[in-house]
Amino acid sequence: MARFSTCGAYTVGKGWRRTIGRKIGDGGKLVPCRFWLGFDKPKATATALAIESLWAGLNAPHWSVVALADAHRLRTPSAVEVVPSRPGAALLPMLKTVLTVGGLIDRYRQAKMADGQLAPASMHSIASRTKALERSPIVGMALADVGAEHLSALVAYWLNRPMSGRGVRISETSARLIAKTARAVFDYADANGLWLAPRRFERLFRLPKSTGMVMVETYSMAELTALYGQANGRMRLLMLLALNCGFCSAELATARQDEVDLKAKIIRRRRQKTGVPMEWKLWPETATALANEMAASGELALTANDKPLVEYIGGRRIDAITNPWRRLQKQANVGRGSFKTLRKTGATMVRSIGGIEVSEMYLSHSEKTVAKYYSVPEPKHLATALASLRRRLAPMFAG
């Protein structure tokens, strides 16, 4: 008595079986290799497909000893995750002894590092987040065993904001970014056939809305006046570019001379992070500082000693702005904020002048609505807002 299905024939009392490939039998003859797949039809089908994928990849007239051992290991419980709603899916499962979640994270990181299109800042961010992700509870778990409940627990773990490697509770923003990186890692596993993903697993990574109101730290006019008054020519240039154009260290580190038109008093460039093209009308003070403080080579993205403002050496980010800024804060008796707070201050003031759309132009953010397919931002609105911002900052220049 036998009946047939995608996993082979069924024998009463012995379950499903399937003949896949050939092996060396007694006397050295090649004989059909029969695999007993158990009594559960969906799991038997998935196991049969997994074994067939190993056989197809072997590209040999018969099973080798090692390959045959791997094929039989696939028949052990939980070696293959079964998704009944996806029968017949092309499976390329990894054996439990081959790839863990930690190994997957490392493979994902190496793949991203090999991407020549990524900026150094992006690679540094990926390296930092994947390193944090390696502290997840399931990092030592076999990838083949990871199911929906494990992914849900992984997201919940990070949203609970555990302690960082330095013993400090991570911020909500960092926790959410790490959870998003986790989704990218498992997307990579699914897309490259390393893991049989649960159906619609992406929904497990949908993050709830932030629990609290985001507080944006900005400098007061008195603080700006004190900082500007104590700054030397080079630091004044950086302050002016941060306020006039919304540049932080990443933008300053990639700025080039050919993006500056001193005659027209305009900077035109694509933001490194978003690739959005934008132009900023320069204030007279900014244009003068640019003419006076450009590096000897004529480039902007250099220190006074013609060294890069931001470097990535051995996986570490070397920022030539942070320490001088802290010294300036100490001299000006301003005990809070960072250099990036200048960008936040400028964006907040521009938004109060021209609204959210103009502030998004100022920040070179990518449009997230359908409007980006039907309309083009008007630079003159930003130029008008920047002129108003210059008038609001008059006390800083006067001081």
Beta-strand residue fraction: 5-15%
SSE pattern, N- to C-terminal:
EEEEHHHHHHHHHEEEHEEHHHHH
What fraction, in percent, of the residue positions are helical? Answer: 40-55%
* Distance, first to last CA: 97 Å
With strands numbered from the N-terminus, the spatial order across the biggest sheet is 1-2-3-4
Overall mean confidence score, pLDDT: 81
Shape: elongated
Please give the largest β-sheet: 4 strands, antiparallel
Structural class: alpha+beta
> Can you count the beta strands?
9
Unreliable parts? 80-97
Number of H- or I-type helical stretches:
15
Rg over alpha carbons? 29 Å
Task: Describe the protein in words.
45% of the residues lie in helices and 11% in strands. The chain is an alpha+beta fold and 399 residues long. A four-stranded antiparallel β-sheet has the order 1-2-3-4. Helix 5 runs antiparallel to helix 6 and helix 13 (356-363) packs across helix 14. The chain starts with a strand and ends with a helix.
Provide a concise account of the structure shown:
By secondary structure, the chain is α+β, with helices and mostly antiparallel strands.
Question: What is the topological layout?
Answer:
Layout: E1 4-5, E2 8-11, E3 15-24, E4 30-38, H1 41-58, H2 65-73, H3 101-113, H4 120-133, H5 148-159, H6 172-191, H7 221-230, H8 233-245, H9 249-254, E5 260-261, E6 266-270, E7 277-281, H10 284-293, E8 310-313, E9 316-319, H11 322-332, H12 340-354, H13 356-363, H14 379-392, H15 394-398
Antiparallel strand pairs: 1-2, 2-3, 3-4, 5-6, 6-7, 8-9
Helix pairs in contact: 1-2, 3-4, 4-6, 5-6, 7-11, 8-10, 8-12, 12-13, 12-14, 13-14
